[in-house]
């Protein structure tokens, strides 16, 4: 009897000829009967896949998607589908992964099946032949040799560098059962084949078939592509980088790689431990010892140094360099921890001990010992007293071939991007869709992974825009670590915060750029973020530059007008919040049970979110209604914080920042919301909560009253008693209707797409005036 085999493929805007060649090669497998599970990651290619599979005689099942999926989420969806199918099967299937445009050799599956006769192995993979886009011209006979891969790296070695190419693997069902759902990530920092390899290595082992069983088609649209790993191996820098010694950027790259390895190691450990505890994995099978260096809180760096020595001794110099980088990062982590503990922690501990000591006798503390000689004070550089955010840390290289729309944002790291930055990104992407070259520059925080940042940004482009080449007009730049950034005298700037307005003004004036005016995306009255002082004054000063404003809502424009700023006139562009109300409104409701769930937008570190006021209002509400754990569950989303004991035995648990893709579904399972913002800017969470079907309480501020949008929103004065009373009102109200969820943001400004069109009408002529 033939072993059932599911072949999971992620399909994303495939080349029809390449797809047919690949499906034909799968259908022609010897001694195997594969069944294709095609995840339609582009949400549109289902018919093409079905017709092509029928034509080559390959059984196929589709996993549809309502939205575009990246490769990791697509394969996760496919594996979840297979795991579900396997529950009703008499025999456990094997699972293979496939790309949409490679070509399998006829014995790809049969040799994998033979290798898995070793009952200890959970996954096998092979070498691949590297071919050009035509599918026949050979680039390299062995991908392993081309990329200098280690054939059997072991569990810890996979975390130095993954040697498994997903489209060559064949695995047992148990690997998929343990692996899904994948650990969450912001953007794409790790791929599915690495995670599957870690699970397989930790639960039995991985086998390697030393033969190319797939022709890997190398072209311009590969998700990763084959890379000559020797280039720049010594310092971990790209080929062509002339810097000789490791620098801060090198250290940040090594730290990012180590952080990912530590994250995956801990995720693997926890997933296996949970599986054993749940009875899904027999005791004694797991092999987690190699992960110990990543699990220890402080020590463990020595293992990485020993690994580096062993790898170097066996000729794997590039891997030795990576292991050395992990050792340096791990040592740095320990040193930093000890420095913090022996710094402020030491002083506090000494103070406490002396306080108790002198309380014994004589009952009073002496003055601190005075120095015989006055301390010598060295002169400081005056630049240390100036806010570094106001001055560019890079020099513009004015040799770019054409002008660009330059978007200055604090960060481009996916995990650090919040709604305000997303809005700025969308304006830049909208200009790219309309033909402009766009440079995104991170001004405050170094870019941890250019690939992850670019993936996050490009994913926000529409499918039509990507097909039209908009992604090729976008570039990502680090304004923190880069010494130069490409520029053109005709560049047009978009400032997105008061300090980036100073940056834009300085860059224009210092370099004599053609466009003396910049555009200023104003999303709040930023002087109010600070006490009276330097930052308050600098934020106010930014409104005196020569710019054209773009206001986030008419409410904010009206607030500026009330304060006498002439640029906040009725003709100034104001747009609706960057919220896809329909995305939240169409999420099926899962709340309404007992206990009811109340979600607080909790960000203790952000003063304008009034965390303390919100907690006081919650406590008053809980006491007034005498609510206990059987009545209500309290959760906090936003920024992580310690759990809080609330009245009547309740606990306010913090979930921190939820993954963007999971956020609507979670809100749809909540019944009430409390989200405060002491600012004229209409923050997003109250609107998102209401669209998700929650009764949400928020505060008023000046002209801001969000209750005008929907009866699902209750506005109250920004003080605890009024907010608690509003929560009581919300508690007694009936469930939110679908009509109340589907509200219009038109009163807050023009739609964002219309705002982009109006902005493009002004900017594109400036960028293309020389060509005209």
From TrEMBL:
Gene Ontology MF terms: polysaccharide binding
The WsaF N-terminal domain, residue ranges: 407-548
Annotated coiled-coil segments of the chain: none
Biased composition (Basic and acidic residues): 380-390
InterPro entries: Nucleotide-diphossugar_trans, WsaF_C, WsaF_N
Region of interest: Disordered: 360-395
Name this protein carries in UniProt: Uncharacterized protein
Organism: Roseivivax sediminis
């Amino acid at each position: 009897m033939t072993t059932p085999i599911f072949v999971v493929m992620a399909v994303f805007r495939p080349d029809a000829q390449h797809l047919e060649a690949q499906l034909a090669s799968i259908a022609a497998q010897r001694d195997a009967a594969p069944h294709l599970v095609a995840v339609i990651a582009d949400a549109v290619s289902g018919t093409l896949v079905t017709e092509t599979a029928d034509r080559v005689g390959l059984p196929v099942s589709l996993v549809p998607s309502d939205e575009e999926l990246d490769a990791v989420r697509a394969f996760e969806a496919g594996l979840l589908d297979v795991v579900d199918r396997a529950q009703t099967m008499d025999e456990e299937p094997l699972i293979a992964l496939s790309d949409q445009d490679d070509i399998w050799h006829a014995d790809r599956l049969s040799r994998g099946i033979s290798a898995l006769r070793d009952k200890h192995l959970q996954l096998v993979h092979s070498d691949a032949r590297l071919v050009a886009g035509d599918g026949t011209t050979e680039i390299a006979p062995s991908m392993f040799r081309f990329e200098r891969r280690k054939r059997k790296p072991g569990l810890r070695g996979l975390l130095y560098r993954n040697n498994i190419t997903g489209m060559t693997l064949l695995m047992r069902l148990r690997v998929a059962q343990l692996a899904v759902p994948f650990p969450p990530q912001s953007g794409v920092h790790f791929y599915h084949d690495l995670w599957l390899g870690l699970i397989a290595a930790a639960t039995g082992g991985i086998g390697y078939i030393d033969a190319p069983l797939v022709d890997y088609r190398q072209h311009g649209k590969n998700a990763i592509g084959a890379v000559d790993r020797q280039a720049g191996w010594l310092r971990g820098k790209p080929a062509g980088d002339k810097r000789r010694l490791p620098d801060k950027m090198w250290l940040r790259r090594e730290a990012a790689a180590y952080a990912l390895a530590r994250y995956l190691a801990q995720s693997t450990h926890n997933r296996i431990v949970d599986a054993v505890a749940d009875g899904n994995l027999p005791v004694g099978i797991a092999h987690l010892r190699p992960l110990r260096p990543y699990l220890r809180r402080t020590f463990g760096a020595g293992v990485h140094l020993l690994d580096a020595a062993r790898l170097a001794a066996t000729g794997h110099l590039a891997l030795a360099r990576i292991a050395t980088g992990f050792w340096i990062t791990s040592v740095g982590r320990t040193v930093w921890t000890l420095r913090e503990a022996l710094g402020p922690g030491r002083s506090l501990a000494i103070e406490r001990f002396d306080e108790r000591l002198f309380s014994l006798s004589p009952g009073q503390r002496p003055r601190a010992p005075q120095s015989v000689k006055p301390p010598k004070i060295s002169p400081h550089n005056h630049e240390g007293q100036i806010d570094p955010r106001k001055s560019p840390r890079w020099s513009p290289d004015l040799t770019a071939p054409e002008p660009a729309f330059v978007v200055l944002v604090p960060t481009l790291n996916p995990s650090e991007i919040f709604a305000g930055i997303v809005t700025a990104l969308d304006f830049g992407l909208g200009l790219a869709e309309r033909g402009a070259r766009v440079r995104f520059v991170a001004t405050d925080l170094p870019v941890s992974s250019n690939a992850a940042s670019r993936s996050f940004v490009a994913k926000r482009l529409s499918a039509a825009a990507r097909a039209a080449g908009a992604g090729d007009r976008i570039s990502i730049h680090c304004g923190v670590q880069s010494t130069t950034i490409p520029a053109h005298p005709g560049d047009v700037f978009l400032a997105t915060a008061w300090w980036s307005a100073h940056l834009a003004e300085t860059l224009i004036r210092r370099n004599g750029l053609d466009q003396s005016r910049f555009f200023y995306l104003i999303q709040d009255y930023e002087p109010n973020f600070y006490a009276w002082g330097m930052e308050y004054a600098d934020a106010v000063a930014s409104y005196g530059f020569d710019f054209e404003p773009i206001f986030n809502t008419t409410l904010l424009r009206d607030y500026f007008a009330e304060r006498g700023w002439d640029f906040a006139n009725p003709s100034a562009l104001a747009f609706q919040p960057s919220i896809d109300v329909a995305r939240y409104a169409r999420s099926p409701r899962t709340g309404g049970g007992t206990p009811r769930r109340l979600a607080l937008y909790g960000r203790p570190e952000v003063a304008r979110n009034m965390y303390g006021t919100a907690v006081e209002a919650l406590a008053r509400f809980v006491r007034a209604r005498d609510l206990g754990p059987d009545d209500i569950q309290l959760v906090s989303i936003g920024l992580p914080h310690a759990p809080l004991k609330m009245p009547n035995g309740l606990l306010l648990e913090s979930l921190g920042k939820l993954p963007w893709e999971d956020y609507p579904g979670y809100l749809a399972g909540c019944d009430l919301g409390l989200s405060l913002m002491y600012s004229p800017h209409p923050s997003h969470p109250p609107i998102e909560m209401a669209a998700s079907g929650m009764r949400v309480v928020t505060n008023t501020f000046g002209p801001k009253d969000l209750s005008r949008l929907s009866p699902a929103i209750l506005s109250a004065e920004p003080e605890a008693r009024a907010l608690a009373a509003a929560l009581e009102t919300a508690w007694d109200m009936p469930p939110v209707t679908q009509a109340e969820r589907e509200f219009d943001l038109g009163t807050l400004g023009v739609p964002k797409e219309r705002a982009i069109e109006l902005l493009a009408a002004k900017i594109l002529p400036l960028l293309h005036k020389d060509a005209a």
